[in-house]
Design goal:
With 543 residues, the chain is an all-alpha fold. It is built from 15 helices and no strands. α2 packs antiparallel against α3, α3 packs parallel to α6 and α10 runs antiparallel to α11. The longest helix has 36 residues.
């Protein structure tokens, strides 16, 4: 990027202090303030989901179901899944990090549709509020997948209200994706061609496509569940002439691409971290960018691998198995190219880079075990066991959460103009990595040995591995609490951050920290490809 770094001083007026009061925040159309609102919201939902996870792990410390009843346990894992998937993992990186940095990365003053951007946050909050209300008055026990006919006929919990809350979150997701696509298409700075865009932009562009095309499908499926539940129309219930497998097709047609709504923006974050902290161009930039689009396309073609034991034909299962192996290729391209970027790079082991390493390790483990469940013979053995639980947590939590924390630490100086204590940040990154593996790796063994998921009581021979998993969850909880403490501390006591503490070439670093309301005093002009560190040896770490 050609724009020169602004002097490392605080502007007298920036987006945080230009206007005060709750009203100014609740009615803002500034993408940066909306990102902060999202950050607060998803953090609250993350810790609520974490409380449910804690209760689940405490229940599983002993083989007998002696902490909560089976009905309560069903509600715990359902509510944990709903809160974490729909209200944390899906919106975390796109809505928080994407909202904050995407307009600055393209050299724009704001999103293409600022009022729709604010509306998307309000829809998210309304959806979260409805869902939390359902939780407080009795909860849901269907599992976060709402499988029929249990969800439409037999469950006497608050399924309808939860579906309404998720629908609001879905519309929020659609509006966010619409804004990403329009902003990248129409508001790029002069000279910022498609081949010069940062890889975070490519990832969020692909994510926006999935949000717009996939979310309406799950919305329709959940509306049909609500219709059948209220009016007893035979859509999914075989007793009424319906087809329960139809619901699985509709649900997973969205919910498998939804994994890439979580992971694609995380991959974009890792691309930024790897190139910044190795001081090298991304190896094979075009291939990494193309891999983002390929993942978005292939992601819509593999939903059937969730249904190998649901009664689909052998031939369709074989086709979905082949496609599941093919979708692993663009993900492998990214991991290979990140590794090649690191080769002979001047690697700096700052906190964001530690999270990038954590992402690569955990995502690779999750991806490799995904190949196991994509194989028809192995999948029959491990379906609905803790092997699958471990697999998707390595992808969705180990991958997405590590990248999200890496992004928070990377762009924190830009967001608030303050640095955080590096020692504490590195300690928390190490604790999270260790705690995650101690929590979820034993679950691979549990699943292989035959322990089913969603059981609140189990055979005694599984206790040792379950106790180990619960111990790991305790370590993980400490790791997650530390950033909350020291990042809040840094808002007041942290060192003043320079405009570009990492010496990055990205456009978002070419304005002050925190940025002014309209991001740039003058519209930047781009004359170079992304990540031209070889042409700018003066770009060094300041902080």
């Amino acid at each position: 990027m050609s724009a020169a770094p602004t002097a490392a001083v605080h502007p007298r007026e920036h987006y945080l202090n230009v206007d005060y009061g709750i009203r100014s925040w609740l009615l803002t159309t500034d993408h940066k303030r909306i990102a902060i609102l999202y950050m607060i919201s998803v953090t609250v939902m993350f810790f609520i989901g974490g409380i449910f996870a804690t209760l689940i792990r405490l229940e599983l410390m002993t083989p007998a179901g002696d902490l909560v009843t089976s009905d309560t346990y069903n509600k715990l894992f359902t509510m944990h899944g709903i809160v974490m998937v729909f209200f944390f993992l899906i919106p975390s990186v796109p809505a928080v990090i994407g909202n904050f940095v995407l307009p600055m990365m393209v050299g724009a003053r704001d999103m293409a549709f600022p009022k729709i951007n604010l509306l998307s946050w309000y829809l998210y909050v309304i959806g979260a509020g409805i869902t939390l209300y359902c939780i407080t008055i009795g909860g849901v026990d269907t599992g976060w997948t709402f499988y029929t006919p249990f969800s439409t006929t037999y469950s006497n919990t608050y399924v309808f209200g939860s579906i309404v809350g998720i629908l609001f979150a879905g519309f929020s997701s659609i509006f966010t994706g619409l804004n990403f696509i329009a902003t990248i298409h129409k508001l790029r700075a002069p000279g910022l061609t498609w081949r010069r865009m940062q890889l975070f932009l490519w990832s969020n562009y692909a994510t926006g496509v999935i949000m717009i095309l996939g979310t309406p499908v799950v919305a329709i499926a959940l509306i049909l569940v609500a219709v059948e539940r209220v009016w007893h129309i035979g859509i999914f219930n075989p007793a009424l002439g319906g087809d329960p497998v139809l619901f699985q097709h509709l649900f997973w047609f969205y919910s498998h691409p939804a994994v890439y709504i979580m992971v694609l923006p995380a991959m974009g974050v890792v691309s930024e971290l790897v190139t910044t902290f190795s001081r090298k161009r991304v190896f094979g930039y075009e291939f990494v960018a193309a891999a983002s689009i390929a993942i978005a396309v292939f992601g819509f073609l593999v939903w059937g691998h969730h249904m190998f034991v649901a009664g689909i034909s052998l031939y369709s299962a074989l086709l979905f198995s082949i496609m599941s192996y093919l979708v692993a290729i663009p993900s492998a391209v990214k991991v290979f190219n990140w590794t090649a970027t690191l080769y002979k790079g001047a690697i700096s082991y700052r906190t964001p880079m530690l999270y990038a390493f954590g992402f690569i390790g955990l995502f690779t483990m999750g991806g490799l075990t995904g190949l196991f469940v994509a194989a028809l013979g192995v999948d029959i053995h491990v379906t609905d066991t803790y092997f699958v639980v471990a697999h998707f947590h390595y992808i969705m939590v180990g991958g997405t959460v590590m990248a999200y924390l890496g992004a928070i630490h990377y762009w924190w100086p830009k967001m608030f103009g303050r640095m955080y204590p590096e020692g504490w940040a590195k300690l928390s990154a190490g604790i999270i990595f260790i705690g995650f593996n101690v929590t979820f790796f034993p679950q691979f063994l549990l699943g292989y040995l035959g322990m089913p998921r969603r059981y609140h009581a189990y055979a005694p021979e599984f206790q040792v591995l379950n106790v180990m998993s619960t111990a790991g969850a305790s370590i993980l909880a400490v790791g997650y609490m530390l950033p909350l403490i020291y990042l809040l501390w840094s808002l007041r006591y942290g060192e003043i951050a320079p405009a570009n503490p990492w010496g990055s070439t990205g456009l978002e670093w070419q304005t002050t920290s925190p940025p002014p309301t309209h991001n740039f005093e003058e519209t930047p002009v781009v004359t170079e490809e992304a990540y031209a560190y070889d042409k700018h040896p003066e770009m060094e770490f300041v902080a």
